[in-house]
Amino acid sequence: SLGRLLPSDLQLKWFPPEQSSLLPLTSDRDPALVNIPEVGTGDGGKWRCELWQSTTRLTSAVITLKIEPKLSVWMLVIICSVTVIVFLLLLILVFILCRRRQRKMRHLRH
Asked: Which superkingdom is the protein from (predicted)?
């Protein structure tokens, strides 16, 4: 976002990295905003932004966009570890409860 509207004779163009599946984006509809509908990790990299007046390029800039995957390897390891720990705690709890029940039954028989 530029934060304000561009004059009608100016146009902002965004060029994604070569590996991106996105086409170049222009600011035709709403000059103050550039929306990317769906972003993937392949869309990360060097994006070029150009400001045009009619057929003349006034200026350009390059920014590096870093996009991280939704689920990293460490997040997956942590989720699996917590699941295993909870399962083991439940197993221990069931074991303890069964042992207590057996002791009470033995105590009642004598």
From this structure: Eukaryota
